[in-house]
Design a protein that fits this description.
The chain has no helices and ten strands. The protein is mainly beta and 114 residues long. The strands form two sheets. Strands 2-10-9-4-5-6 form a six-stranded mixed sheet, with no helix packed on it.
């Protein structure tokens, strides 16, 4: 069974770049046809899908976040990462990584504050 675990700073200053990493165990991020996703949930709001990276390294982003988002991967570590630039307090949320079979990480809280 695939397990996912988010990691990264819990506090980011406005205008900085937020970088989070998802470590995958129990399966490979290069497994054919799997996709790996980033999703967030701001306080008091619903889930927002941010983007994904495919087993082949292809990426696709939410149009609303595309200009500030980048998803990369390190196949040697079986990890994929989210980079969100120019953060504002509106980017404060619980950030989740997930896979295309329905597996989710436990989430990591990110606060944006100076």
């Amino acid at each position: 069974q695939v397990q996912l675990q988010e990691s990264g700073p819990g506090l980011v200053k406005p205008s900085q770049t937020l970088s989070l990493t998802c470590t995958v165990s129990g399966g490979s991020i290069t497994t054919n046809y799997y996709t790996w996703h980033w999703i967030r949930q701001p306080p008091g709001k619903g889930l927002e899908w941010m983007g994904r990276i495919g087993y082949d390294g292809s990426t696709y982003y939410s149009p609303s976040l595309k200009s500030r988002s980048s998803i990369s991967r390190d196949t040697s570590k079986n990890q994929f990462s989210l980079h969100l630039s120019s953060v504002t307090p509106e980017d404060m949320a619980v950030y989740y990584c997930a896979d295309s079979t329905g597996g989710w990480g436990q989430g990591t809280q990110v606060t944006v504050s100076s």
